[in-house]
Write a structure and sequence with these properties.
Layout (H helix, E strand, L loop, with lengths): L5 E7 L2 E6 L4 E6 L4 E4 L8 H8 L4 E4 L5 H4 L7 E5 L5 H5 L3 H5 L4 H5 L15 E5 L4 E3 L4 E6 L8 E5 L4 E3 L7 E4 L7 H14 L4 E3 L6 E2 L1 H17 L10 E3 L7 E4 L8 H16 L1
Parallel strand pairs: 4-5, 6-7, 11-13, 12-16
Antiparallel strand pairs: 1-2, 2-3, 3-4, 8-9, 9-10, 10-11, 13-14, 15-16
This protein binds zinc ion.
Length: 281
Amino acid sequence: MNMDIYTVEEIAPGTFRLDECGRDNCYLLCGKTGALLIDCSLGAGDLPGTVRRLTKLPLTVAATHTHGDHAGGGHQFGTIHVPRAETHVSFRGQNLRVFRRQLLSNRMKRAGITKKNVRGSIRKTEWLPFDDGAVFDLGGRTVRAVSVPAHTVGSTVFLDERNKLAFLGDTACPVLPMHTYRALPLSAWEAQGDRLLALTDGYTLWCGHGDGRLNRALIRRQLCWVREILKARPTNEATHRILYYPTFDPAGCVGFDPANLYESDKRKGWMKETWNSILHG
Ligand SMILES: [Zn+2]
């Protein structure tokens, strides 16, 4: 079985992009006394082994959000930190092996990675909640978690303020992923767009898919596209579909579901359930 599937790129001193066979990216940040792994991929390969070859420092793992291609590898580490708003059972459910196996990309399959590579159980993974503003101290290097509920309810941007590096997960990507499982309505992304741009002013951006590169000019363009979509479609449509605007382009477009443009009563019911479980256990 092919376990060594991660391609490593040093993107800044002591900072690595770990590319899971073109499927998704996680990022390893090394300080003087500790290291932080931001996201832990689908977990189709030996991610802890790849990390250990890069650093022997004590490791903390934190997820930008809990989609299976960002938190799914958590079982290889035992304990991971996740946004508090996504500790709900339905997000854990999405990390069951059966669902993670559905996330294998064609490129992974062509590289010989099969469902058997996606192992481990979410039931053995402890999710420790972190809150907006949480700071991860790596010794001479700190990373701050800022909640930006644009992609999912808990989606978080990690800021290395001294080195001006921002890690966005799926909060923004060249193909904006607003058509995925329990993504927020497109209008929620629009509501956070200007804040995301202000937050990342002066930063080099790294995202969860493609080659990781992203620039603020593209986010600005996506915000215009999202506003055009919402203007043309004033209500949610009846059927779920995946559409791309203005057209599918890996270099920049918006993926969306016309049934999930605006907050709906059905969605509000689920959100109420989520918040109740957070507040009342
Ligand atoms: Zn996602």
